[in-house]
Structure of Aminotransferase class V domain-containing protein:
Amino acid sequence: MSMSICDLDLVAGVCHVHLNHAGDSPMPKEVVRAVVDHTELEAKVGGYRAAEIAAGRLEKVYLSLSRLIGASDPGPQDPRDEIALVESSTVAWTRAFYSMVETKEKELLRMSFPPQKELVILVSEVEYGANVVAAVRFARDHSTINARIKWKVLRIPSSVACGRKTGLVDLPTFKSMLDGEFPLVEESSTTTYLDPKSIAIVCLTHIPTNSGVVNPAREIGEMISDYNKRHTTQAGKLPLLYLLDACQSVGQMDLDVKELRCHGLCATGRKYLRGPRGTGFLFVRYEIASVLEPSHIDHAAAPVKQVITNENSLVGLGGKQEYQRGARRFEFWESNVANRLGLGLAADRALSIGMVTIERQCKQRGRFLIEQLGAIDGVEIHHVHSSNCGIVTFAVAGVDAIEVKRRLMKGFLIGDKLHCFHVSTCPGTSTPLDGVDRDILRASCSYFNTDLELTHFCDSLKLIADESRD
Ligand SMILES: Cc1ncc(COP(=O)(O)O)c(C=O)c1O
């Protein structure tokens, strides 16, 4: 990608090389303009009237996002009903996760016989920290609240190469989990195997926050889909669910939810997609969304006219409990309209450049960076297979990650010009299951970083690494 894209679409005055697109990526000018324009309109006419004026454009946001992830083929359903606009990827993930597991639980409790004893949540080894804590607490609390069901969270082991974990789901092991051939470590001497029918949900992080590996999301989707065909459930009953955390891949990779075969997918606005902070979205396949009971509702998600009372006790909701169509049930009434409009334009911008082009450019820059960094004495690349995208994580021997980040931001004189670089650090807590317990550095490049910027970055890191050895 030539510099002209960057010149055309970035706000003037950026004075550092931005290598933190996995954290936050600078918004294109038109996104900033849309957010500012709408905020100004709100100041003039009030937020509600401004939303009425923008209603058509707001509806378009759903279409743009569904096109971005390949959900928008014409079909019986309106693709807009597969998207919920929320505030972050974590909000999207938790809305989907809690609704999915709670609906599964209710489904099981409604069955009088046989009372299944165990329900399992499978999570990838590089699962994002927020997802892990939510899953573990849910399993703990719901096993105590309800004596009939015991929830358990199991990690899907990653493959190993050169004696190190890759961070990628080991596909044969995952298959063994679905086929009833995965041994569970028990205290007793007899080996028991994971009962595939007990698996309620598979949670996969597509690209982890702390490395550039790309999990085989499509292959996993195919295996789950085969499993669901083999264990065909009766109509209206939930299949084995597949929830994909695509926070780092949306806006960076060319995604197609039909190929991925996920039931739910979450994403954020501010990272590779270059939308405003405080935005995110959730995709839920229409037929799944329609049978999910949202874990949190307001009167917009679940409109109700009458609350049934008994004296002063509010004992129920009158009429049939109905939720908004499809994924809209995961939204609340109040929202930041300006930001949502910005998010839609960010998706349009990505689509106009082309997701195939963006993915290719990000990968190419990631590889370039990994080659250059790998050649520096004292720089250790994290994960064996990094990188298959724009994210590269590493450590500098003898220098604390936060100190490296600080020095890069302070800058280095190259020729007669000061070059400052913005990277981020990933704390061990961001991926609690992968055994990485130290802070590591993350440089994440996007399609508009130039080879020259990356070369300057590597030259600067070499200076830091050399100094630490002296
Ligand atoms: C893989 C992954 N999932 C989820 C998140 C959370 O995103 P948000 O902060 O928008 O909730 C992140 C953020 O870094 C992430 O890297």
Observations:
- Residues 1-5 have pLDDT under 50 and may be disordered.
- The domain at 57-353 is CATH 3.40.640.10 (Aspartate Aminotransferase; domain 2).
- Residues 125 and 434 are 5 Å apart (CA to CA).
